[in-house]
Amino acid sequence: MMPVPDILPGGPVLPAAAGNGKLRVLVVDDDPIYRETSRMFLMMQGRDVTLAENGNAGLRKLAGGCFDILIVDMEMPDMSGLEVISHVRARPETADLPIIMVTSRDDAMAIDRAYELGASSFVVKPVNWTLLDHYLRFVCRAARNETLARQAQKEAELLGRTKDNLMSVLRHEMKTPLNAIIGFTRLAAEARESGDLVAMREHLEAVQESGKRLLQSFADMATYSDMLSGRIVPACEPIAPGWLFDDMQELHGPALATAGIRVERCEEEGNLRFEGDQTLLASALSRLVQNVLEHARGATTLRLISAREGEGLKLTVEDDGEGIPPEHIARCLEPFAQADMSLSRAHQGLGMGLPIAGSIAALHGGDLQSESILGAGLRVSLRLPIAR
């Protein structure tokens, strides 16, 4: 019988300890003879084996290491295998870990309970070691396929929401400026015929503003598409956070002053530099500042903050406005979505500011973090590595 391959053609590679490509197995059993026998046979098959003498020891090793599969005995004195499975599934970092239950009795009820708690498969003692290795490969492959299926489902759900959000926003964001262009063009023509050049100029300026709004919407869609398709590759150059903050004040200073919002800067002392694409990161921060201008009702202060965070850097745009309900934050991070998705909403735009800023952070190996307290404002941060 031909062995089942550990890696499916064209599929993802299982994580490997120390880059050696071996399947990492944790064996939890109170029987020392079984533990050593399992180590010997599994290592003969090229597996990277770690042993634990009881359930508590096994959970400690899981918390401190990284494994591809867990083999756990059903009956142990300090903690049963069922309890181990329950603890493993309760931890987010091990919730999807494949688990093989080993039992010395043919107890259908116990096996059913193991499956209910999240066991992937089971074997009965005495163990057929050759078949056990096939079990390992089969269970890992099945778990990998299940993970891929869940990821595909999440992506499909996100795609469906994105499509619905896009159509809803486009109906508002395209229809309004197009109607304005048509209407103000007609009014400008009438003003020209009547000789009212002042009115004609005002109408043409309104047409220009509507055209700019349309152009910005298409530019945002194109930018997001380029990021998703990998057509944008960030440069890697030394940057000081202060340079980015200078860009923000130069670009948005007049609009912030007009809105009655003063700017405060809080920068970590020292000659801090990090690696990134200054143009892209300035664009990300600009979208965060623009978000304050357009949506932060009641804001009087905007803070630009840079601070170290572990081995990375956090660039934060914070306001003292009314904030938004915390449950709306997730919607704001989705492309083509806004906290208010009604057609009668007062705010313009495709709702792409935060998603594009988050994508730029991701291109740099970082992410976007957002938190809001009603009545206390919104804080949005780009969390970036110091070195790429």
Given helix and strand content, the structural type is: alpha/beta
Discrete helix count: 11
How much of the sequence is in beta strands?
15-25%
Distance between the ends: 47 Å
List key phrases describing it.
49% helix; five-stranded parallel sheet; alpha/beta; 12 strands; 388 residues; five-stranded mixed sheet
Please provide a written account of the structure.
Helix content is 49%, strand content 18%. It has 388 residues and is an alpha/beta fold. It has a 5-stranded parallel sheet with strand order 2-1-3-4-5, sandwiched between helices. The protein has a 5-stranded mixed sheet with strand order 7-9-10-12-11. Strands 6-8 form a two-stranded antiparallel sheet. α2 (55-64) runs parallel beside α3 (81-90), α3 packs parallel to α4 (108-117) and α9 packs antiparallel against α11. It is elongated and about 100 Å long. The model is unreliable at 1-19 and 339-350 (pLDDT under 50).
Q: Topology of this protein?
A:
Elements: E1 24-28, H1 32-44, E2 48-52, H2 55-64, E3 69-73, H3 81-90, E4 99-103, H4 108-117, E5 121-124, H5 129-173, H6 175-194, H7 197-229, E6 237-239, H8 241-258, E7 262-267, E8 274-276, H9 278-295, E9 301-309, E10 312-319, H10 329-332, H11 353-363, E11 367-373, E12 377-385
Parallel strand pairs: 1-2, 1-3, 3-4, 4-5, 7-9
Antiparallel strand pairs: 6-8, 9-10, 10-12, 11-12
Helix pairs in contact: 2-3, 3-4, 6-7, 7-11, 8-9, 9-11
